[in-house]
Each structure stands twice: as C-alpha cells, then as structure tokens.
C-alpha cells in the first residue's frame, strides 16, 4: 500500500480508502453481509496496509430506525473489539437536515446545517463509532452560498477546541465540484471529497487547481460510478427492490453504459487489464487526489483494490484518450433548480 499526504492535515493516508456504505444494511443497497464477514473485510483491509475508513451518519439509516447508524455502529464495534482505533483515520459525514442528496440551489444553510443539527450529528457519530474524537468530518452536501453564514464556522471551531473533531471537510453538491471553491478559500476546510471518475471529470478543471493551491486534501468517491465502471452492469438487467441504482440507471442509461464500456474495453492492454483496474488507476494518476474510496463488501474486493496501490500511473497518452470518454450528466434535475 502506498500513502499520500492529505493536504494541510499532514495525515499520511492510504491511497485506497475503505468505503462502508454497503457493509451494513441500508434501504438503498439492501441487506449487507453478516457482521462477522464485515469484520473480516475490515481486518483484511487493515492487514494489507489500509488506514482510512470512510463512513457517514446516514449509511444504514432508515426512517424505521431513526436512532440507528448501522455502518458507524458496526465500525465502532469492530474497532473496540480489535483495539485498532489508533491504526485508522476515521472519516464520517453530517447529512443535510432535509435528507436530500443533492440539495436544491436555493437551499439555505440554516435549513440544511443548523447549529443544533451539526452538534447532534457529531455526538451521534462519536457514540456510534465509540471514539472520543473524529479525525475528519465532512458536510455531506454543500453550496458556496453557505460560506456567507458564520455560524457553521463557529460551531466547527468550538467542536475542534473541545477535541471532538480534528479536521473539517465538505462534499460539494453532486456534479457541481466547483460549487465549493469560495468556501475552500475561507480557510476553515482541510479536506474535500468529490465524485471523480472516468465518466465524471469535472473536478479536474477548477477544483483540483484550487485544492492544490490551498493545500486541501482531496478524496475521491464513487470511483466505479455506482457500479457502472465495474463492467458488471449490462442493458436489460434489473435491480432489487429499493436499490437506488434502479433510478440511477433508469430508462436508456444502461444501454448507453453498455456502449461506453464497450469503447473503454478497447483500451485495455498492459496499463490496465480490466475496467475496474483502469477506473482506479485513472484516479490515482492525479497527484491532487490523496485517496480513492471504493466500496468493499468482501475480502476479494479488498485485495483486488489494494493491489493497485503500487505507484504505477496511467501514461499521458492513455489519460488523454480517457478524456474523450467523459460522460457528464445530472440525474438529479432538482439540484439545478
């Protein structure tokens, strides 16, 4: 496993972080693995050199059990039982109060991240993860207009001074990576987590140069485009009831995905032999990215992903070719309203 500096936090973070949305039951993913199997996945990740576990207050949350935070709680039990808290960088996220991803462009921060909500979520996450301090906390959505309000900054500073949070970050609204640049300039934020993959290349234009100039750590989520870049999805397939991908790949999107994956397959050779390998190597070819966060439900996925943290990047010729395969689209029209 290779490690990179997480911007001005100065944390040395493993190039491959462990995404944990899928390791506990979640209404949008269905039933997760048995807890003992998830523990084995977490342990294997650490044994292979991984030191970054990414979760969120909302992972595993449901209206039926509003006090439960299944992903955080599972991770908390694992770290307590194995006494390995000191080995990992824990990142979690504060959800928008209205539980909308992404939020609409006219949203106001007092309705999305009011002071009490921020504090309550931090206390929930501390309890769920069974820790005294969270390494990185992200606002799970963001608009640059939020930066005009100082209350969130004061709350963050207070929670940091109390020793409950080390570093603060944010995740810009889906498909709008430039929608946080003014906030990054304010100095309160140390980390930004954005969607970045072969299909969604927007962060390269504005976010990456700004993050580099300000020494902001960048982590990349959705590296496989919700499964689209695994090579396992195909036209005509159906998803289990409740699976959010039924909406994400609705209509003719699977047909279009099939066509695009066929084109990418033509590029497979010595630099990358599979679509997932190409997807992860593409992201790690950018020095601005400190860590990439694939979801990992079983031990085989852990080994396959971590094996790609070997310092080898795609060539400039391949990166130039992949630029033509950008597939920018917004499946959430309310976010632009």
UniProtKB/TrEMBL annotation:
Name of the protein in question: Aldo/keto reductase
NADP-dependent oxidoreductase domain location: 15-324
Organism of provenance: Candidatus Roizmanbacteria bacterium CG_4_9_14_0_2_um_filter_39_13
Keyword flag Chloroplast: no
InterPro entries: AKR_Detox_Biosynth, NAD(P)_OxRdtase_dom_sf, NADP_OxRdtase_dom
GO terms, molecular function: oxidoreductase activity
Gene Ontology annotations for the cellular component aspect, listed alphabetically: cytosol
Keyword Oxidoreductase: yes
Keywords of the record: Oxidoreductase
Gene3D superfamilies tied to this protein: NADP-dependent oxidoreductase domain
CDD domains attached to this UniProt entry: AKR_AKR11C1
């Amino acid at each position: 496993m290779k490690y990179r500096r997480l911007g001005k936090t100065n944390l040395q973070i493993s190039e491959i972080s462990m995404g944990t949305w899928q390791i506990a039951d979640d209404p949008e993913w269905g039933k997760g693995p048995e807890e003992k199997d998830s523990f084995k996945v977490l342990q294997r990740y650490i044994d292979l050199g991984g030191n970054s576990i990414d979760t969120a207050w909302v992972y595993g949350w449901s209206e039926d059990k509003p006090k439960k935070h299944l992903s955080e709680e599972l991770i908390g039990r694992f770290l307590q039982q194995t006494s390995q808290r000191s080995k990992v960088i824990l990142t979690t996220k504060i959800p928008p109060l209205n539980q909308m991803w992404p939020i609409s462009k006219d949203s106001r921060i007092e309705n999305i991240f009011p002071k009490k909500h921020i504090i309550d979520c931090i206390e929930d996450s501390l309890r769920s993860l069974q820790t005294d301090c969270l390494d990185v906390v992200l606002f799970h959505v963001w608009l640059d207009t939020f930066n005009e309000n100082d209350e969130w900054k004061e709350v963050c500073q207070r929670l940091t001074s109390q020793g409950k949070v080390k570093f603060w970050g944010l995740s810009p609204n889906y498909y709008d990576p430039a929608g946080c640049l003014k906030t990054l300039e304010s100095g309160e934020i140390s980390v930004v987590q954005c969607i970045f993959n072969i299909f969604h290349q927007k962060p390269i234009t504005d976010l990456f140069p700004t993050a580099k100039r300000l020494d902001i750590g960048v982590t990349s989520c959705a590296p496989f485009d919700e499964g689209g870049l695994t090579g396992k999805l195909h036209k005509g397939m159906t998803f289990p009831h409740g699976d959010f991908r039924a909406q994400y790949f609705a209509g003719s999107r699977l047909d279009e995905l099939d066509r695009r994956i066929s084109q990418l397959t033509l590029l497979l050779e010595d630099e990358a032999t599979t679509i997932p390998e190409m997807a992860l190597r593409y992201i790690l070819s950018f020095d601005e990215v400190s860590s990439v966060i694939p979801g990992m439900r079983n031990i085989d996925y852990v080994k396959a992903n971590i094996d790609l943290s070997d310092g080898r990047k795609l060539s400039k010729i391949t990166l130039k070719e992949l630029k033509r395969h950008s597939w920018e689209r917004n499946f959430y029209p309310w976010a632009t309203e």
